[in-house]
Amino acid sequence: MALIKCMECGKEISDKASACPNCGAPVEKEKRKVIIEREKGFLGSGNTPVAYIDDMLVGNLKTGSKLETDVPLGEHNLILEYQVGNAQRSGILAYGDLGGVNSIPQKKIIEKFSIEESTKVVHIVVPKLLAREIVITKE
Length: 139
Prior knowledge:
Blueprint: E1 3-5, E2 12-14, E3 31-38, E4 50-53, E5 56-60, E6 66-72, E7 74-83, E8 93-95, E9 101-103, E10 106-115, E11 121-126, E12 135-138
Parallel strand pairs: 3-11
Antiparallel strand pairs: 1-2, 3-6, 4-5, 4-7, 7-10, 8-9, 11-12
């Protein structure tokens, strides 16, 4: 946790605060652009994960696609959530052999990254094959 000055009253407050506890002024968080890109592939689309940064939905990350969002400074988690096998086409629930409803197994990939004051852009490259390494670079 770092201390910052409130833009209204000048008191030192936590950079995690959403409002100044002294005067109630909202704390404007400094943000940076985050670009999440999925490598192109020629052998079909594979799994299409849903990308989140912390709890914020960024979008569906199909092969060859690019998503952009603004994220505040600090520590973050990139979360890629996808369904295993052919489950994506049938939604969250599928019918089992016995006629009942079974949950479809889901997988999550979590990659930690941070955005410092000196960072201008964070570029995240997600491989077509999700088992490979995610590459994060900062400019």
